[in-house]
């Protein structure tokens, strides 16, 4: 009973964070969510809780697909292409880990994701504002 109340509070708090977050923060939250789901799947795999493993890997996969599919390949250039390919690789590796029940593959994906998340977190505020402004101008020009 106590746990249900905590989970409800967390969900409410997360919804509020999402509602107030800028695109940079949302991306950071997605990255952390993917890492969390992979870690949960890892624990389930260790405990042979296959239903939980499948659920968490499915959610991690969905997050990675979203991150991959929201890359602006026109603006991103070679970096965008490489990031797209890396997310695509991680998605495939999660499938491999699920099929093979392989903890090392999950570690591999975590080790690929962490530097991306850490680099994203290091983006200076001025660069974020510049990107938001360019995106607004692009949207207004399309109208």
UniProtKB/TrEMBL annotation:
One of its GO terms (biological process) is bacterial-type flagellum assembly. GO terms for cellular component: cytosol. Coiled coil: none annotated. Keywords: Bacterial flagellum biogenesis, Cell projection, Chaperone, Cilium, Cytoplasm, Flagellum. Its main location: cytoplasm. It is found in: Cytoplasm, Cytosol. The keyword Cytoplasm applies. It comes from the Bacteria. The keyword Chaperone applies. Belongs to the FliS family. NCBIfam families: fliS (TIGR00208). PANTHER family: FLAGELLAR SECRETION CHAPERONE FLIS. This is Flagellar secretion chaperone FliS. It comes from Saccharobesus litoralis. The gene is fliS.
């Amino acid at each position: 009973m106590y746990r249900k109340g905590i989970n409800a509070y967390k969900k409410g708090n997360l919804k509020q964070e999402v509602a107030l977050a800028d695109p940079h923060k949302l991306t950071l939250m997605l990255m952390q969510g993917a890492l969390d789901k992979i870690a949960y799947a890892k624990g389930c795999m260790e405990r042979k809780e296959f239903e939980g493993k499948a659920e968490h890997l499915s959610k991690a996969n969905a997050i990675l697909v979203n991150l991959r599919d929201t890359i602006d390949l026109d603006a991103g250039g070679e970096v965008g292409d490489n990031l797209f390919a890396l997310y695509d690789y991680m998605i495939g590796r999660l499938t491999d880990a699920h099929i093979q029940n392989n903890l090392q593959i999950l570690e591999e994906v975590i080790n690929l994701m962490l530097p991306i998340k850490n680099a994203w977190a290091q983006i200076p505020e001025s660069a974020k504002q510049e990107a938001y402004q360019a995106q607004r101008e692009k949207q207004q020009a399309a109208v």
